[in-house]
């Protein structure tokens, strides 16, 4: 925090708060999710916020929100006690179904979510049971390569944490499947299984290797809290208290399970019985029969003005995790995009092209959908003659401003970090240099208790990340050099170069705010420009490049979040790293198998040859990738920018907006407007959200976030500390369990639709009849 900052009495996010600020600060009595809260936040917090050693020097650098959640006492555990046959067995049990379900979901309209909190609860009890029945202190293996079947010790929360981190890595989908799906579904081209598997492994592990760059800045410094990690750590520690029968652990776990049961039962209403609760349109329920009014009030295809939701899928636990100022920025951006811009285009003169406002499709000038398959030759190149006959590709106004703000958000992310994060990142860089000079661990460069606890373990050597990178790089280079996939080999170098530039700034934003910046649009634009000079360019190449460039950030972010959990849980860093690699080694083959099963049995539905009578296997995401491929690879960005010349100015806006706010902050540091909090990257990225299908839930999110992260944190902090993260995890788990049960009961075999009634109207489930009948 800079010296000219006023007393800490608002929600703030700063990255350079110094000890000298203590003298100027008042007691902390308001919501401060400050990622770098130093002495003042700790010294002014309630005594009960921390342990009995709260006056010790090694606690002053730890943010208050971390002290509320993390246990600072430790019982070290060895690698030998972690990597047992029991660990491998539990990893397989919980990774295989998760990887399969997540992959299958990407092709479906409805899906059954696989909750990591379910893994966290179930693996703990299964692990305790296995610890009792498996042979103790016996090994299996060959020669000196043996592992214990069971370490002979009680199953602890650290064992559970290792299982969860492994599943968090492996029980997911894969970006690499996008290009494989596009090729097989739309172009009838099948990729060699070995090429597919090594491609999928390599792009994931490249992202993991890039974590070696960002982790030195973000994992050790206590100011980077990783808010979503705190939610899982809170549940871990509650489980531990229940096991130890100390404090209120058992009571809290009972509350946790009762909430799961209640939420599960309740969500049969919005998810199946009464979908009206998904989007509760106040305007429509008041009985309006006006088309304009019902469009404005509809949250399912309309502007969603004053629309509420009773479906947790449209709220999410972000309202209990994200700092409040982030939620304020997002709500303001939503109001501007959905409540102002959409009606201005629909009923005003903001855009002369009215078609496709609520669609991501491409259009002809007359407003009909563009027949993009007709402009492709037999080898998937552009048929110039046919294109000239049909005319230019048009986009809906909403898709246009989405792209504009996507460009702005991408550039803004870098400029914001340079301006507002320079001091803290430069401090981290000096510590990194000092650790290299002393040939010691980065743990030793920080004086907080968490790093002191972690210093008992050996850190992950940098060369582990280097070896991982080298192996993946060579594998991908061979794949592309032999033309085994759809991208030129030299594009790999461009993707890797961009990854080096973006990984630390964007992970920095995530570590502080829990906000993930989508980067797909920019990646596709870059690839579109690069590939236009090639005589042959396959449409699926854009998804190949996007998978590589995207995973360099997304997977790096995931691995850092899990490594922060390991840091909070005081797990051996090497064990966490190995567990993440092991999780993906298990998960990727399952991803590929699920993809092959879906394509072999549902291909005609997915490519539109046949219509799925259940309307489940629609392949909407793959269809979107196909549209993007046509737009960026076949047609090229130059045609798009010629028709929409304002789009490139998004980059300029993204560069200038942070400079403006930084200047205002410097000139008016004590302004009530708090210019340093108005993160332009978050604002632009939220403006880039597409509200064509669902514009409901955002008002409910803001109301819920105001209650949890503002009122409860400020005025009922002890209650917030005790229940907030626990309830967030319980509601997430209950919702996911409800979706899974509904899927199994009503959709896994023969589809069983819910009969129509007042809460499930056949014309409009939210009862916006005039709008639904007109759009018909």
Structural descriptors:
single chain; 776 residues; mainly alpha; two-stranded antiparallel sheet; globular; disordered N terminus
Number of helices: 30
* Shape assignment: globular
Biggest sheet features: 2 strands, antiparallel
Beta percentage is under 5%
What is the mean pLDDT?
85
Q: Can you characterise this structure?
A:
A hairpin with a 2-residue loop joins strand 1 (139-142) and strand 2 (145-148). Strands 1-2 form a two-stranded antiparallel sheet. It has a two-stranded antiparallel ribbon with strand order 3-4. The chain is 59% helix and 2% strand. Among the domains are: 19-67, no CATH class; 249-376 and 670-775, no CATH class. By secondary structure, the protein is mainly alpha-helical. It has 30 helices and six strands.
Short description:
With 776 residues, this protein is mainly alpha-helical. Helix content is 59%, strand content 2%.
Describe the secondary-structure layout:
Blueprint: H1 39-43, H2 64-67, H3 79-82, H4 85-105, H5 116-133, E1 139-142, E2 145-148, H6 157-170, H7 177-186, H8 193-218, H9 227-244, H10 249-266, H11 268-273, E3 280-281, H12 282-285, H13 291-297, E4 307-308, H14 324-347, E5 362-363, H15 384-390, E6 394-395, H16 397-420, H17 422-438, H18 449-454, H19 462-481, H20 491-513, H21 520-531, H22 541-568, H23 573-606, H24 620-635, H25 637-643, H26 649-667, H27 680-687, H28 698-715, H29 717-746, H30 769-775
Antiparallel strand pairs: 1-2, 3-4, 5-6
Helix pairs in contact: 4-5, 4-6, 4-23, 5-6, 6-22, 6-23, 7-23, 7-24, 8-19, 8-20, 8-22, 8-23, 9-10, 9-22, 9-29, 10-29, 13-30, 14-27, 14-28, 16-20, 16-26, 16-27, 20-22, 21-22, 21-24, 22-23, 24-25, 28-29
